[in-house]
Amino acid sequence: MSVTTDNNDLSLRMAGHFRDIEPGLAKGSPEILNTHRKKAFRDFVAQGIPTRKSENYKYTNLQPAFSREYQFLHEKTEKEFHLEEVFKCDVPQLDTHLVTILNGWFYQEADIKGILPENVILESLEKVAVMKPELLKVHYGQLADTEADPMVALNTAFARDGYFLRVPKNTKVESPIQIISLLQSDCDTYVTQRNLIVVEPGAEVTLILCDHTLNLHNYLSNSVTEIFVGENAVVNYYTVQNQHNNATAVNSVYVHQEQNSQANTNTITLHGGLVRNNLKVILAGENGEANVYGMAFLDRKQHVDNFTQLVHAMPHCQSNQLYKHILDDESTGAFSGRINVKRDAQKTNAFQRNNNLLLTDKAQMQTKPQLIIEADDVKCSHGATIGQIDEDALFYLRSRGIEEKQARLMMMNAFSYEVVQNIKVEPLRDRIDELIEKRLRGDVARCHECAYQCDC
Amino acid sequence: MEEQDKLLHEVTQREYQFGFYSDIETEIIDKGLNEEVIRIISAKKNEPEFMLEFRLNAYRRWLKMDMPDWAYLKIPPIDFQAISYYAAPKKKPQYDSLDEVDPELLETFNKLGIPLEEQKHLAGVAVDAVIDSVSVKTTFKETLAEKGIIFCSFSEALQEHPDLVKKYIGMAVPVGDNYFAALNSAVFSDGSFCYIPKGVRCPMELSTYFRINAANTGQFERTLIIADEDSYVSYLEGCTAPMRDENQLHAAVVEIIALDRAEVKYSTVQNWYPGDKEGKGGIYNFVTKRGICRGVSSKISWTQVETGSAITWKYPSCILMGDNSVGEFYSVALTNHHQQADTGTKMIHIGKNTKSTIVSKGISAGVSDNSYRGLVKVLPGAINSRNFSQCDSLLMGDKCGAHTFPYIEVGNKSSIVEHEATTSKIGEDQIFYCNQRGISTEDAIGMIVNGYAREVLNKLPMEFAVEAQKLLAISLEGSVG
User: Quick one: closest CA in B to A332, which residue?
Assistant: First the structure.
């Protein structure tokens, strides 16, 4: 889809910045990353920073975020503190392999090699690109299409670091891998993060991604993750987003599935200034299964845009999409989900549902569920609702002696639990459920255990 | 039932039956588009000054616009300079009775089955026939005039009721609304005008028949319907074109304005030439249709059966401004061979307690692409609004596509919006059931499709419903197997 550029000034400024730093970028980073830069930059210039005139960014306005002045971090800086001291994961009894990303750069806190099964690589992308470029060569940049999205183009042009994960054949990683992405800086900062996950045939892995901001500066983070799921492999990919009101986050995740593979993703947005989640799943082998879930609970002027594409390229695949939004105060939400069944992808089962609750008259929801079907022997459906709690159900509860406030809470809790229940890591599921319940009840004013009160 | 079967059988044997070409002397101005051409059109039609201004304003805006590319359509480049923007049957002068009308022309309408002749007056339909975008004959004018209803060609309205035209033209579809609406506003040649006065219930169906006849011309007609307070009108529109190898352009605008408690029902059976089996020729149909429910408790209902055109780009919409106003959209869109359709509706809820219903049935066969694209927008002030949308797609064959692109935007908490869509194919078991009762596969498909589309066909006035059923069967011919 074409992107109109009437925001020339901002795009030009970005382009100018790239030209300034390009020689330095090229010198400092490995060849494999450099080979993609030029084309990505050209694609960005052709498209410009997305505006609301662009069909794909119709409901998310990135202009205000881009019009600020940012510091760019094209070099890794020495960390001046211990991350364990400033940030502690507050999910009790969660046993994970922990890795930290600060402002898009990979920092390893402790030696995790001994804990992870043999031959599993969890490393800095840059480091792998230098040491073992052959690991990246086949996969890097293969899914993230720089022509289709200017934000992906921008990411590819600026890409320096992020994490790289490789799970070898028939290896099962028992406890989940937790990747904490933190944003902390002493001024407004633009962050680029580039990740690559390769799960080889028969392997199984669970990832928990936690996005946090550590202070109140404006952040614009643009991350791209490419995930390759081999034959018979299973990947669980859970994202928990908890950033403050000044943060703008654009996350693009691409999943490529081979035969008999399974991918389960769950994107929980608990807090965030402006969040855009792009997710594209390509079912490229027969009997693949993709379960894509998402939930957002927003208040004040926050905005979330979940943008999913499910491509059924081969026959006999199955996909489920379920996205729910609860919008309070003046928050706005958008959902754009697309099921694309390619010609000859017969016997496809593809289902999509999007339910939204508006709690106030100032909250707004925009939804765009789409079906593009080119094969005839398929079962596809989508449904979308925007509204309030079912009055009949409420009446039912009240007629059984439950007071209205309590009944409403129960209904809202049940509403979100349909998404949360799909998280297979029990401590995480319980924790999220608890957080949502507290939010609904109003116990926790805003963010949970948040040191700074971002009433901005 | 038996008669219906016979009818179905009869029509399935035929290909596009309106593909004849009438040898009528036509007056065509040179190809090309510039301000001079617009001045010529305006002068030829002896239009008031404000109309020329309106056209030039639209043209200047059109120059600055780009052809829309967001639709799920492959539109070959259109050379707007290779089209003649005015073609009219030469023997234009006013006719007092049908005897004076060019016999060739009468023959054309007879072939189309349009009840122009006296005896057909009994059929009770007032017709405004538009051929190559010039209104040829309006029937029943006197009967309608008694009730104060104005139903005439657009040119006539400009001469006799310029104040009404000036007040309402561009109200629903402003000149700069979109690329094709701007083009139409600049060059439209004729169309129908209809005004229903306060408290009048129009006693008969009003109808317009459009036909493109001359080669290399574009048809740009404009319809304006104004329903004053407490009035009611049901309006029908039908279209056909001859078979030609080249593609022809049709870019129409329809505007409906409904005031307090008025109700307008607009039905379309669109059967422009769809091109041959290889996708050669056919009409490019780019239409802007929009109604405004300005008054309280007003209602606008669109019903469409779209079977023709090589490319259809059409979104009949309702702007629900008045409190308690109602908008409806019922559509059957069928594509076969190489046809492409991107059609749907927009429902903009502005007033309180407004309601809208969308029922869309898409059928794709051959190697065609059929898309539903619709917007339901509830503004923050439109409290207690309600929308229900249902979009079903039926796929026949493994090379066609069915797509759904709904846009739903809700700005308050008291409104409820629901959308559901399904895609499926005709079940083998259904066909088998019919086969074992002695019904051939082709007839069975015709029956199943008609049953599938019944919900929409039921909304059509009687005469049209029969025609629509026939059309569905014709268009599907050869898609079996």
Answer: B411
Model ipTM?
0.72
- The C-alpha atoms of residue A160 and residue A139 are separated, in whole angstroms, by 16
Distances (CA, A) of A453 to A219, A235, A332, A441, A447: 17, 36, 21, 19, 8
Cβ-Cβ contacts under 8 Å, B75 against chain A: none
B38 located within any domain:
yes
C-beta of residue A134 within 8 angstroms of C-beta of residue A168: no
Query: Residue B105 belongs to what domain range?
Result: 26-431
Whether B471 is covered by a domain: the verdict is no
Looking at beta carbons, which residues of chain B come within 8 Å of A343? 398-399
Q: Which residue in A359, A378, A386 is closest to B423 by CB distance?
A: A378
Tokens 């023997």 belong to B91
Q: For residues B65-93, give the mean pLDDT.
A: 75
Inter-chain touch B417–A377, beta carbons under 8 Å = no
Q: How many structural domains does chain B have?
A: 1
Residue B442 included in any domain: no
Measured CA angle at B370 (ends B365, B376), to 5 deg: 150
Match 């809820």 to its residue by tokens: B349
Q: How far is CA B376 from CA B265, B354, B381, B410, in A?
A: 20, 12, 15, 8
- Nearest-by-Cβ selection for A363 from B405, B408, B413: B413
Q: Which of B311, B337, B332, B372 is nearest to B476 (CA)?
A: B337
A29-81 confidence digits (pLDDT tens) = 888 888 888 888 888 888 888 888 888 888 888 888 888 888 888 777 766 66
For residue B423, give the nearest of A343, A366, A373 by CB distance.
A373
List residues of chain A with CB under 8 Å from any CB of chain B.
1-2, 55, 343-344, 346, 356, 358-388
- pLDDT of residue B459 exceeding 70: yes
A138-187 pLDDT per residue, tens: 888 888 888 888 899 889 888 888 899 999 999 998 888 888 888 888 88
* Residue A367: how many other CB atoms lie within 10 Å: 28
Q: How far apart are CA B464 and CA A154, in angstroms?
A: 55
As beta bridge partners, residue A298 has A327
Average pLDDT over residues B329-338: 87
Residue B216 has pLDDT above 70, yes or no: no
Pairwise CA distance, residues B114 & A99, whole Å: 77
Residues of B in contact with A369 (CB under 8 A): 404, 406, 419, 421
**Chain A neighbors of B393, CB-CB under 8 A:** 371, 373
Tell me whether residues B419 and A361 touch, CB distance under 8 A: no
Question: Is B413 in Cβ contact with A360 (below 8 Å)?
Answer: yes
User: Does B213 fall in a domain?
Assistant: yes
Which of B419, B445, B479, B480 is the mutation pick for testing A, counting most A CBs within 10 A?
Answer: B419
Least Cα distance to B295 among B236, B226, B234 occurs for: B226
| Token code pair at residue A83 | 């991350």
- So what's the pLDDT on residue B210? 67
Which chain B residue lies closest to A384 (C-alpha atoms)?
Answer: B419
Alpha carbon B180 to its chain centroid, in Å, reads 14
